[in-house]
Amino acid sequence: MLIDFVPNVAGVSLAESGGFVKAPGGAPANVACAISKLGGFSAFVGKFGDDEFGHMLVDILKQNGVNAEGCPFDQHARTALAFVTLKSNGEREFMFYRNPSADMLLTEAELNLDLIRRARIFHYGSISLITEPCRSAHVAAMRAAKSAGILCSYDPNVRLPLWPSDQAARDGIMSIWKEADFIKVSDEEVAFLTQGDAHDEKNVLSLWFEGLKLLVVTDGEKGCRYFTKDFKGSLPGYSVDTVDTTGAGDAFVGSLLINVAKDDSIF
GO annotations under biological process (predicted)? Predict the structure, then answer.
């Protein structure tokens, strides 16, 4: 989890912006908050700097009904920051400050495994795979969930500026691909991971594997496509005046997971 600094005017560069508004960010935390707001129960596992921003973020989790028992503080590292450029169409670009930030320093020993094992679904991204010790902590948490029979949900949430190279990002993201029961990717991420046309179903299905229960591709304003072993389909998007797309995919995932948790008989 991190602090996003968002320009108070869209369509300008970071240098041109006259001011910024701080906001909580981080895809898995956004998903946890979405689930809570929709009436579900959620918890977050991650490390924070023992600073004002870190305590602010944990307080925000609690205020949104998210269990924060799995959130230790680090006295020697800061909470991560990101500056976000809003384009005129509501899309974003990111500049990160984390070298290293507290979230990168979560260790396996700091995991609250009892909290993880109480879940119905364990949801995660790929950013925690970039560096040690967080990568090992991520893998240990995921394996603890799987060994407890918990469904695993993966949203790669590609952020290339955080990875050493594009190929390192592909390799890292795909290294745990086949551990998931559900995967949500955007059309842009399909294009990146397959290096092909995201709207060619053959390319999309190259991401399918035996044992996967649901693959969802979000297509921005066009809606989404979904694939299971038995059926597939698509749903149109809602027509809205776009202001800021930040967190849109996370809200989508939160609403999907809370309904899967209520009834997974579809699979």
Answer: fructose metabolic process
